[in-house]
Structure formats: structure tokens, C-alpha cells
Amino acid sequence: MDLGSLAAVFVGVVFINNFVLAQFLGICPFLGVSRRVDMAFGMGCAVTFVMTISGVTSWLIVHGILMPVGSRLGGPESLFFLKYVVFIMVIAAMVQLVEMYLRKFFPALYTAFGVFLPLITTNCAILGACLLIDMNETYRNSLVKSAVFAFGGGVGFAIAITVMAGIREHLRFSDVPKPLQGAGITLLTACILSLAFMGFAGIGK
Amino acid sequence: MASENGSILKQFTDGIVANNPTLVLLLGMCPTLAVTNTVENALVMGAAVIFVLTMSNLVTSLLRHLLQPHVRILVFTLTIATFVTIADLTLRAYVFEVSKKLGPFVPLIIVNCIIIARAEVVASRHGVGRSVADALGCGVGFTLALTLLGAIRELLGTGGITLLRESGWHWHLDPKVFEPHAWVVMIMPPGAFLTLGAVIGVVNHVRARRAERGGK
Predict the structure, then answer these.
(1) pTM of the entire predicted model
(2) What number of C-beta contacts closer than 8 Å exist between A and B?
(3) Interface touch B34/A198, C-beta < 8 Å
(4) Which pLDDT band, with edges at 50, 70 and 90, does B2 fall under?
């Protein structure tokens, strides 16, 4: 496990397979919370935080509890039907824990993140990160790569949503046709952003 | 009884047209963008959502008198996660190729806002009949919206529509008109954003026109 391969994982998930613009994870907050740059940045940071923690925790639970207990009961995969329930419980618990921890020790950060934290439980980017880690051979076998992947996914989400918010702040002053106002023009802008991100595909080669 | 039946029917049709979850309420955007590159994916995804939505609304509606307010979201989520696991294993058993293409988006039905919203707004407050009618309506509305987007993207992106490619009897629509000019970008990520944005624009335009006419 060298630094180069970790960097490749990170760049891959931030730019080439960006969670929002190439894999369509976390579209709801991307459309809903991208009106102002500061809010978007706050949301991006909160998602990165929770995504890293829950990606690592769900990996640990699958490899530390489900597989050993499953092998006792007849084959390491015999408890895998519980995976989805476990993932969603881990995310809900992590969000709850992070919320309590921040409220106690970092009240300023808590008031900044406050509104977003409960929303994150049902953010599909977080569950998506846990699922993708679980589906991919490279990440399934390495905790460090999984952690880098989850962190990179969060960073990619934060970049996409902040860029989008920057564009939307300017869009407010432009003359958008009435039926396209709101979601329509945001999706068309996302289309152009996504075209731009397709240009990064060459880096991976 | 007749009026009760009528309102249940209305609950069903509302989900398809007036409150279409995807194109009007803009719920559940992630699968809408991700699995609409072919009609086949859209149909399989729609079927999975109809199943999960109906079952979770049914169970939530039966449990509604036992639900404590502070744990209700947890109960909804666990109910949904159970049915999603069933749907995922069934898809893997019978349509493995499609299920591989859908990737994480079948398990992601767990956090689909349509299903949680219907459990919260309808199923936890109304009887079984109405909840199931609502679930079927919303599910069908979601499937129709996805199929529409899938049809536009597959037709423009590949020049034709193919169903059931892996099995023996596949169905293929091939107008030939588009083929030499197929826009590959339509089945790639930017095409998803472009198609959905354009379709939402058209829907908004039609709704505004209709509201105007109704006002006069």
C-alpha cells in the first residue's frame, strides 16, 4: 500500500467519478441547499465529516462482526442480508453521535452545521459511499483505501455543491425563462458542469 | 361508501399526474438521473420502487396506532430497509444483468425521499386502503416519469430502444432515423441532467398554462 495508489483513489473519486456529477449521489441537497455559498460549504463539510466516519465504521462492522459471526453460523456471507439494515443504522447512529459531540465540545460548529445534520441521515451520498465501498474489490479488502475513498467522496461532493452555489448566486441576476426557474435551470447548469468534469476522465489513464 | 371509493381512486390518480413525485414534487432525484440511461433499467427500477413503496405503506399503515412519534422515522427506515433487501435479492436472482447495471441504486431506495415522505404524510395517518392506493399511484407515477426520461435518452443516445437484451425474446425498436446521428452524450451523465432539466421545464410550462386557463 503506497501513497501513490491512495492518491489515485482520492483523485479518482473527487474528480473523475465525482459523487454528484458522475454518479448522481446526493442530488437532493445538491439542488436544495445550493442557493448560497456559505450554506453549501457548510453542508459539504458536514457531509465529508459524516461520510468518512460512517464509511470506516460500516467497513469495521462488516469485517469485524458480520463476517466472523457469519462464519460461525455457516459461511462468511451468511449474514450479508443484514448489510443494508446495518449501514442505515450506522449512519443514523453516527449522525446522532456527531450531533451530540459537536453540541458539547464545539458549539460554534454545531450552530453552523445544526440544520444540516439531521438531513444527512437520509442523504443518499453517505449510504452510497458505504455501498460502493462494499461492492468494490479494492476497497473491500483495505480499510485505509476505504477511508480515503469515503473522505474523497465527501470532498468531491463539497466541491460540486460549492461551485454550483457560486453559479446560482450569479444566476439570480439573470433573466431565466419562467418555466425553467428553480430546478430546471439548476439541472441545465449541472449538465454543463458535468460536461466539464468529464474532461477529468483523462487523468486516470 | 361510493364517495370513499371515489376519494381513494383520486388518491391513486393524484400520484400519477397532479402530484407526480418525480416531475412535480421533485422527490427522489438520484435514481431518476442515474438509472434512466435505458428504458429497461428505468422499468426495473420502477418495479422495485412500486413493490417497496406499497409494502412499506401497507406495514406503516397497519402499525400507525403503535407508532411513538420520536421513533417513527427509525421504524419507517427499518421497514423500508427490510423490503429493499427482499427486492434486491429477488432482482439479483431473476434479472442479474440489469441488477448489476443498477449497482448501488437498488439498495439506495432505502433513503429515497418519495418512500419516507409517503410513509410520513399518508400511511402513518390513514387506513390501509388509502395508503396502498397512494403507494400504487406514486409508484406508477415514478415509473412513468423514469420511463419517459429513459425513452428520450436511449432513443437520442443509441438510436433505438432495446428491451430484455439478455433473455431470448428481446424486443427492439429501431427507427433508423436517429442512428447515424446518435448523441452518445445523452446516455452519459450530462445527458441525464439535460433531459431532466428540459422535461421539468416543459412540465412547468404546461402546468402554468393550465393554471392560467383555470383562473379565467
Answers:
(1) 0.84
(2) 110
(3) no
(4) very low
